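U., I forgot to send this yesterday:
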Amino acid sequence: MDQLDPALEEARRAGIDLDLLDSTLALTVEQRWKQHDAALELALKLEAAGKIRDARLQSIASAPC
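Result:
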């Protein structure tokens, strides 16, 4: 078995996904930007959905019984 660089072994023990890093670095810059944009779009949609949910819950909580 090959000996890993001590820094890589320490990173792996710390929970860093080195396989994910390798696969990401194998992508072109354009591919990484597309992934970033898609993830950002998803995060913004989730944030908007959370705000809508919170507003609905707030109106239910403040409604008279």
